[in-house]
Amino acid sequence: MSEAHSHPYHLVDPSPWPLFGAVAGGVLATGMVLFMHDVTAWLLPVGVAMVLVTMFAWWSQVIQESKHGHHTGIVQIGLRYGMLLFIASEVMFFAAFFWAYFDASLFPDEAKQFLRVEATGGVWPPVSIETFAPFSLPFLNTLILLLSGCTVTWAHHALRENDRRGLVQGLALTVVLGIMFSAFQAYEYGHAAFGFRDNIYSSTFYMATGFHGFHVLVGTLFLLVCLIRAVRGDFTPQKHIGFEAAAWYWHFVDVVWLFLFICVYWWGAGTPAAH
User: Fold this and answer.
1) SS3 of 182, please?
2) What string of pLDDT tens digits covers the 275 residues of the chain?
3) How far apart are CA 263 and CA 255, in angstroms?
4) pTM for this entry
5) Which CATH architecture describes the domain 1-70?
6) CATH 1.20.120.80 residue spans of the chain
7) Who's near 87: CB < 8 A, 6+ residues apart?
8) What is the C-alpha separation between 260 and 239, in angstroms, rounded?
9) Nearest to 152 by CA among 233, 247, 219
10) Three-state SS across 129-161?
11) If you ran DSSP here, which 8-state letter would residue 271 be given?
12) Which of 201, 145, 214 is nearest to 178 (CA)?
């Protein structure tokens, strides 16, 4: 396309993946609704598989476009804006979960919410809840995530200095730390004294920390792909928008966890009902 070289923008070739991705998202959403209502379980994994295929194929296409020189300076700015807007949308998700948590925790004995008072006993945490000790496993996971923020920053600075060895080492350590966090969180969930459906505390706890845990898994996979690409030599000090997006996402995950640790694990367990 000769016209593609007359301006700094990238006119993408026709692709089936936007349409396929929209169908995959619809199948996934429908499968989740049916699964949660105990109607059928088979549609959910089909939706997940379709979304994974879309992600792999579409992003592979984007990587090839970058290798062919289509990601000019203007295009990179657009990709950065897109990533920032995506992270902003994720902030809204967590804002809703924190809103639900604080609405219940700050007003546990509100007279208008008589069903809440009946379920919680008018105190927070509810009388039936045995919370986690904040400075045990949750604090260890906090240190792990903070350290991972340092290692991914080390990798970023190494890349900008054209230090490929430091880039690979920093990314590898970050991926290992992400896996460690997920493993410890799974252990924590396996030893929790309350289930998801017990009351409003357990529901908000699992929604907020579980959604964050999902983000850690996604971020770990994101950084693992960046590690593979770094080993292949795809990134340069001038062009590394894929790694930059992964680093921004990982720092966002770190910051959200700090709020979760302080508000849910520490402040939320600061009553005699906690151990």
Assistant:
1) helix
2) 444 457 777 777 888 999 999 999 999 999 999 998 988 889 999 999 999 999 999 888 888 887 777 777 788 888 899 999 999 999 999 999 999 899 888 887 776 666 777 777 778 888 778 888 899 999 999 999 999 999 999 999 999 999 999 999 999 999 999 999 999 999 999 998 888 877 888 889 999 999 999 999 999 999 999 999 999 988 888 888 889 999 999 999 999 999 999 999 999 886 443 33
3) 12
4) 0.86
5) Orthogonal Bundle (1.10)
6) 72-269
7) 248, 249, 252
8) 34
9) 247
10) CCCCCCCCHHHHHHHHHHHHHHHHHHHHHHHHC
11) S
12) 145
Q: Which residue spans of the chain are classified as CATH 1.10.287.70?
A: 1-70
CATH number of the structural domain 72-269? 1.20.120.80
Joined tokens for residue 42 = 């088979």
* 183: amino acid identity, one letter: A
Structure tokens at 56: 């792999």
